[in-house]
Amino acid sequence: MKFINIDMDLLRALVCVSDTRGFTQAAKKLFRTQSAISLQIKKLERLTDRQLVERGKEIRLTPAGLKVHEYALKILELNDELISSVANEHIPLRVRIGLPELHDQQLIEKMLDSIDSFNAQYSFLSDGSENLSNMVDCHLLDIAVLLRSEPNGEQAIGKIPMSWVSTRDSRLHLDNNVALALPAPGSAIRRAAQKALEDQGRHFSILCTAHDLIPLKAAIAAGKAIGVLPTGSVPCDLRILDSGELPALPQLHLCTKVSSQASPAVYKIAAHMTGILALGLTA
After folding, report:
1. Which single residue of 1, 69, 75, 98 could bond 144 by disulfide (Cβ 3.0 to 4.6 Å)?
2. How far apart are CA 273 and CA 276, in angstroms?
3. 270 and 229 co-located in one domain
4. R_g over Cα of the chain
5. Are 282 and 254 in contact (CB under 8 A)?
6. Which SS3 state, helix, strand or coil, does residue 112 take?
7. Is residue 152 part of a domain?
8. Contacts of 107 (CB under 8 A, 6+ apart)
9. Is 239 in the same domain as 261?
10. 12 and 135: one domain?
11. Distance between CA 275 and CA 65 in Å, rounded?
């Protein structure tokens, strides 16, 4: 007899589709795209060799789907019980969180304050969004907050306006070759800034590049370069250049991504973080 092992994520997807009565809401709850949830259900149907979901205006489980759903609830409950039982409840949960390049400091501070209530220890890594996304895929991070030109399968939270910034008396934007301080290659901020200048036919050179804000801000504050920052987190000693001085920048998408191996407790923290970030964007 051939043994077939069913991935817990497939069972969790089926239960979530049933609970939310749709792929869209299930995707939001599990921090996946709708197409990813659909593929998980199809894979589960292939493994069981049965149609499990009736697709249409209203999502319903077939008789076979109801049977798998019944077992899925029991299996997931046992799985979560096992994880809880082997973990020492006196040892705080360790959560690895990635923060994007040039993140909005005030927004991140609100998020960090809000997760203090969880019994967890946090380690943070600030890097480019592309690197953070890859680290989540490799399970080197549990949760990542990302800046994207467009969401790429992550949970979209909202849009972040970006601005060109310089010292208050800077005239670098008038130069034929604009000196820039930008995040490292692969950054959505860097791509947006370069494209905006190229589309306007402006020449530029990148004087300073880094994932971290400190060296970039130092180059800007010294009057050596112009930079790009989230509009809501521009320091008072810098000024925002208006659209008449440099081309307008597009808004970027703030997203969250969670490791597929994350525990239910980590998913709960990620959902809480997402809610706080969303509230911060609308405040």
Report:
1. 98
2. 5
3. no
4. 23
5. no
6. helix
7. no
8. 230, 232, 233, 277, 280, 281
9. no
10. no
11. 32
